[in-house]
Amino acid sequence: MENKPLKVEYLYHSGYTIESGNYFLVFDYFRGNLTIPTDKQVIVFSSHGHPDHFNEEIFRWSRENGSIIYILSDDIDVHSTETIKRMEPYEKLNVHDLTVETLGSTDMGVSFLVKLEGSVIFFAGDLHWWYWDDDSKGEKRRMETAFKDEIERLKGQIIDLAFVPIDPRLGDFFHLGGEYFINEIHPKKLFPLHFGDNYKVIGDFINKMGNIDTQIIDVTHRNQVFEV
Q: Domain of 139: which CATH number?
């Protein structure tokens, strides 16, 4: 199937929207300016319940668009309904003509693999190679193994848009997860997650990766829009 044009908007931190001809997807909103369309099918994803990835405000959006569907990690303590779907890792769900699959995380919740109108989107949430200086060697090895095991599940997927953490709090090791993901999966485009207001780390990552086939998107401000 031919990929149709998409519009991606950066909200804040790990929050993004993806707009297609018929759909408006929201990922991990917790803060930022956002207008909910009334003429498209809106699907809201929350990868886990950490307060920098989930905000109960999302449920108020149904007043603006009564057809909203919520796809949430099952660690978020809400009741499942006809419009609220809770997913564990390694499940599959069809919503209209979207396909949603979940992978695990190296923190809480799930990551999402979404097939939308000919495009394949991977949203990592907090799935990352978290390498903290004060972790023990054993903890670092376990984290590396857990992260690589999840990425192995994506082998063979052609991913058009990947949303992956590039977290400056990891210091000299900020690049590990993103670099491994690009080298193993080769997404066409990579959008950074989990960087707060530190836009500089994105440029640092682009420079570190050098000349590669994956286009790393250089986000510079909130509500920046990209046509892809």
A: 3.60.15.10
DSSP 106-163: SSSS-EEEEEETTEEEEE-TT-S----TTS-HHHHHHHHHHHHHHHHTTTT---SEEE
Would you give the distance in Å from CA 14 to the centre of its chain?
Answer: 7
Q: What is the DSSP pairing of strand 23-27 with strand 189-193?
A: unpaired
Rounded Cα–Cα distance for residues 78 and 219 (Å): 33
Which residues are paired to 225 by β-bridges?
9
Please count the CA atoms within 13 angstroms of the CA of 196 that sit on its side-chain side. Answer: 5
pTM for the model stands at 0.96
Tens digit of pLDDT for each residue in 49-97?
999 999 999 999 999 999 999 999 999 999 999 999 999 999 999 999 9
pLDDT tens digit string along 132-143? 999 999 999 999
Identify whether 1 is part of a domain: no
C-alpha distance from residue 54 to each of 14, 85, 222 (Å): 10, 15, 18
pLDDT of residue 2: 59
How many angstroms separate the CA atoms of 192 and 167, rounded? 9
Tokens of 198: 């530190």
H helices present in the chain, as ranges: 137-152, 176-185, 200-209
Residue 136's domain spans which residues? 7-227
**Domains of the chain: total:** 1
**Coil, strand, or helix at residue 95?**
strand
Residue 174 lies in a domain: yes
